Amino acid sequence: MFGGIHEVDWAALGHAYGPADDVPQMLYALASADPDDRETALDGMYGAVHHQGDVYDSTLACIPFLLELVANPTVQDRGGIVELLTSIGGIDLDDDELDPEDEEFEYAANYAMAASAVTAGADVFLALLGAEDRGLRLAAPLALATLHSDPELVLALLRERLGAEPDEEVRFACVEAGGRIALRHRRLAPEVVEWLLGLTRVPSCPGLRLAALAQLARCAPDALPADVVPGVTGLLRELRAEPVTASPLAEPVPERPPAPTLLGRLREAHEADTVGRGAPWTADLLRTLHSGLGDRVDDRIALLVDQLCSPDWGQRIDAVRMSSGLLRTWRGAYGELVSLIGEQLADPEKRLSDAAADTLGELFALAAPAADALADRVAADPESWVRHWQGGPPTLGSAVSALARAGDRRAVPVLARTLDLPEPPHDLGYALDHLGPAAAPLAPALRRRLGEVDLDERLFDRAGPLMYGLTALRAAEAAPEVLRVLRGAPDYRREWVAESALRALTAFGPAAADAIPDLRALLRSVGVGSGFSASLAARTAGALWAVEGDAGAVLPVLCAALSEADSGGRRSAATALGALGPAGEKAAPALRELLGAAEPWTRVDAAIALWRVTGDPGRAWPVLLKSWEQLPATRAAIAQRLTEMSVEGAERILREELYSVRRHNAIDGGYGSHDIFTDEKLLALCRRALTRERPRA
């Protein structure tokens, strides 16, 4: 084994962290008798040689030796090596040819060579289907389906193995591999679909039938039976009838030092998440099924509702997590689902109740059906109102934050209590946006805390959230405290502090008239050549306009900012000019120039401002319409303008948006706590633009 390994000039090859001269040591360690050495080596391979899925020249050099390791029956834990090879050789490249001059060409060439090299040696996986080692039997089906050059042979072997395999999860791996073959080799899809449909009718083993349905959803959703939802819920009930281990609350897991490798920590996290649960593989099968069902939102809701009624807390926590992904990606009627998620807040299993609170915190107003459950959770557990972090400021607990984000006034007394703490939650001010007038009683406490903040280098971190909260409340009585911060800001992050203060004064408007001298003085000091950004100059001008209303004092600064190279400054200036309305018409020529800017958001902000200052959508609307279609993130800003003034062609795009079932900002596999809020805001703006009485341009 390892013949020729020292003939490779490893130092001339590279991986994620530089020269690959340490790779031979990793390869030798993969064959070690010590399990810790093997795990450390495999962790190193993923961390350096196959870092985040990349393929380097050293990765290619490793492939023959990794195949040798897999073929050697004396090597232990070969299943992990099979999975590594599957990942290295199994990347599907686009059909489009890359230009050799393209910087992606080398990466694509490496992937192609890796796939070719692993495929050339993939016969080694054939003997592993019946191996004694369960780990090998688990890894081999997907490796063969992904890498072997004879998919007909592999499919036949998988079907044969399924009939002889005693281990349930290995049988699921065979079924998953069949789905992979159908996706990679479309000519075999009809045969795979027929096989999977047959498996759905096998009377015994509900898990196998569920696995077959999951793969049908993945590779041939149109072949799913019409009664897929009642069929799956029936299978889940059969699975629930099997014995369920008690919750680990009764048997605490003994503490032990954390694993030294990432792979070890992932393994331990999986063990901790599955201990005391029913069959943990159910979640994987249901995730696959949900992914295949795609935009069949009502079916997916029905499945999740059934899971949330399970007596097995493990199925319920999986349902909560899957609900989060569904809600972030698709629009739907979620009232019943959200209410059931709220019921999990009272469960004694902390992982479940915490997951429910975290999910509800992502929903903002959509969490309203669970508001009573949130309020009960908050009232019952004052210790959870604030979360403390090692090395960071405290933040609001998930349930309190979710209640506030839902706009429920019952959060206000709790927030008031946290404002009395020696160090209030860092994110408290950001929760007030959604409470509206109900949060007004918090203004005096916010004002007091802002007045107590030291004007030192931590000023932005401490004062920023407080000023954000006062901005949300439009608490103009706090102008003296805001001005104190603006005047006394230290050099460190001074511009950030100033911009935060300016947003507050802009929100206060004419009620902050005492700020006019400070704003005029600041405006004189932040002009061109001052060293401050054009964005700060534009925000200062915008604040002065909001407070004083003197267009002559701010137009020169805003017009100058429009010509700056800083795109942030141009955008801030365009936004401020839009607030001027017809009083900013002198800036129209400069705004028209920005309609051809390279940055999409600059074009959008300039178009909206031009429309507002001229009242004419003629030049602006084509830019906005194109942006609506090509850059969905701009839609909320455009829809806001359409609530103020209609234009020919707007009704079509507004109705199309309302009819769409997919959230406009959904990213497959992505995550963002404000995704749902932003999309729901867009929908509300579209409805408002279509229904309210408004002038037409």
Keywords:
697 residues; mainly alpha; two-stranded antiparallel ribbon
How many distinct helices? 34
Q: What's the count of strands?
A: 4
Query: Which radius of gyration do the C-alpha atoms yield?
Result: 30 Å
The strands making up the biggest β-sheet line up spatially as 1-2
For the sheet with most strands, the description reads: 2 strands, antiparallel
Termini separation: 78 Å
Percentage beta strand: under 5%
- The residue ranges in which pLDDT falls below 50 over 5 or more consecutive positions are 93-101, 244-253
Please state the average pLDDT score. 89
Assign a percent range to the helix content.
Answer: 55-70%
Shape: globular
Main structural class: mainly alpha
Question: Briefly, what is this?
Answer:
The protein has 697 residues and is an all-alpha fold. Helices cover 61% and strands 2% of the residues.
Structure commentary:
The protein is mostly helical and 697 residues long. The chain contains 34 helices and 4 strands. It has helices at 23-30, 35-49, 57-71, 78-89, 105-120, 134-147, 151-164, 168-184, 189-200, 206-219, 228-240, 262-274, 281-293, 297-308, 313-329, 335-343, 350-361, 371-380, 398-405, 411-419, 443-452, 459-473, 479-488, 494-508, 516-525, 534-548, 551-562, 567-580, 588-594, 600-614, 620-630, 635-642, 650-659, 675-691, and strands at residues 14-15, 18-19, 386-389, 392-396. The strands form 2 sheets. Strands 1-2 form a two-stranded antiparallel ribbon. The chain has a two-stranded antiparallel ribbon with strand order 3-4. Strand 1 (14-15) and strand 2 (18-19) form a beta hairpin. Helix 4 packs parallel to helix 6 (134-147). The model is unreliable at 93-101 and 244-253 (pLDDT under 50).
